[in-house]
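Thread: Newbie trying to understand structure tokens

Hi all, I'm a second-year student working on a class project, and my supervisor (Dr. K.) asked me to get a predicted structure for one chain before our next meeting. I've only ever worked with sequences, so writing a 3D structure as a token string is new to me. If someone could post the tokens and maybe explain what I'm looking at, I'd be very grateful. Here's the chain:
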Amino acid sequence: MLEVAQFSPQTPVISNVVNREDGREVVVGNEGQLLTIQCTSYGGYPAPSLTWYNRSVSTSNELATTNNGILQSNGTFTVTLQHKFTLTRSDDRKIINCRSYYPQADSTHITSNVKSALLYLSLVPSKPNVTQASEVSAGDVIEVSCKTTGCRPVASISWLYEGKTANGQIKSVLDTVTETYEVVSLFTKRVTAADNGQIIQCIVTHPAINSTSGITASYQLSVNFPPNVSAIATNTSVNESNTVLTCIAKGVPDSNYRYGKWIQRWPGYGVPVSVRPGSESLELRGLTYEHSGIYTCTASNGIKVFGTNTEFIEGTAVQLLVKSFPVIISLADKIASRMNNNITVKVDYFSNIPGTEVELYRNFNGVAKTDVMFIVNKNLVEVELPVFSHSVKTNGTRAIITTPIKSETDYGSYIVVVSNEIGSSNRSFEVVLTEPPSTPRGFTIDYIQHNKARLSWMRGYNGGLTQTFIIQVGTDKKTWSDVIVVDRITKDEKPITTILTDLHDSKTYFVRVYAYNEEGNSPLSETLNFTTSSIKVNVTVKTNNTTAIIVGVVLGILIVVVLVYSIYVTLRMKRRHDPDQNKDISEDTKGREYVNVEDPIKLKTKDVKKGRTYPHDAQASESQYTELDKDLKEAESAYDAISII
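---
Reply by user tm_fold:
Sure, no problem. This is what the structure looks like when written as tokens:
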């Protein structure tokens, strides 16, 4: 039998082999993607068999095989074998083998040719893990990290926040065992309360990822911030027993709130009219118009305002209206009138709801009579409304009531009633005949200097007319000079104050005050007296010790001589005159003597009437203002603090 010649094939060639720097021959692929590997055998006759093996050459590791070759012109066969498969992570860095051989050959041709290569994959990054470094508060810088592992080569990471793409700080670390990378990107931003709850997205892109959008992971930012605080209330009226206001706080963390205080303000009044201990609810009892106003509450969740120590936040205000009956602010207790005149009654009142009525009644033994003729005109005015311990200037109404006084029966007690939809309030007054004013009250002297002193007194009833005050000043209780002070205010609890100036030092003065109007004079006040302080003169002489001693001795001798001579002259004069003629004019003031009372008084006043005497001198009471503290008398700074009213 004729034997056919056989030629062993050359070593197979693997397509797409890349020579790496480390000398390894590799076939590159992407994890998760399809890879086609091709092996070609040249020069064999007959056509050899080609087989792909995974890892090692063994029957169990066969991937594919063929012996279909193409006969070349040189009489040998070229055999090509392809194998397609989807790469997995387990294929990375695994050996693949291509073997050409003759399965039916005799023993001399059993030796096969094998070509090996290393599968080296681009590995898909792991799903990113996004974390926030630590708790932050509004105003702080937040740090959010995105980490992906197991990738080859290094993955790219970007951020998407509020519709805008940003790049963070990238850091990659190589694992030398697996030859893969861990990649971390850090996103930083100074946050506000508005950032809390916002979504930030980490985007990882890589050549091994099929999707153009990459692998994403989202994270919801957590930003602590002080609470937004507000108060809620429902309008009510004084006819209700109570009302409740609620403090609403919303912050992060949204728990464990503490409440500071409730603050009540009156519109247009800068100072709080009430401050109450904090709680989530504020219950108001015994309702009055005073409970109306603008309320705020304060609350804390433990987070401070950035850059400050402020923890309790005062919230948005709510306005509470407690509808009330009118409040009468002012009405004269007495109104003086002559017969056949019209009287004008001015009533200032406050009502926090519109629509008020003003009525005038005659008061007969506590019974209101409605047969009074009157006319009412109303004007808007500013009133001083008592709100708890405050006096608040606010809008009010002035009712001007006009009614005739035609007979004696029209004199007496009246009642003014002011009402609205909630209720009414009333105030009584008396119509009396015009009369002279009453005696000024609380007449005092203070801040006595060497040339000035301050006088103060309280108004008495003015008799229904404008009153004028007369201060009478004298040095001997016989001749008086008048200082006129006109009172433009008919009723005021504040004292009237004026300053006597251009007085003489070390001199005693007597003062008293009375008032008069068109109907006559008031009784005199008590008569007070005071002594101005002396002027201290400091003389400084520069000399030596010997001269000072000589001068001191001479002055001492002169003083002794003058004193002896004065005693001698005084004794001679007492022997010549009747003792009764030497009685001092002030012996009714505990025996204290006052000298040099003959000097004239100089007063700076708006109007001075000289020599005016008053018929009730004999009834005027007297008191002493001589024993005053010397330091107060001579303290110039005390006078500087006085303003003339």
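A couple of things are worth pointing out once you decode it. The longest strand covers residues 390-405. The domain at 441-535+593-640 is CATH 2.60.40.10 (Immunoglobulin-like). Feel free to ask follow-ups in this thread.
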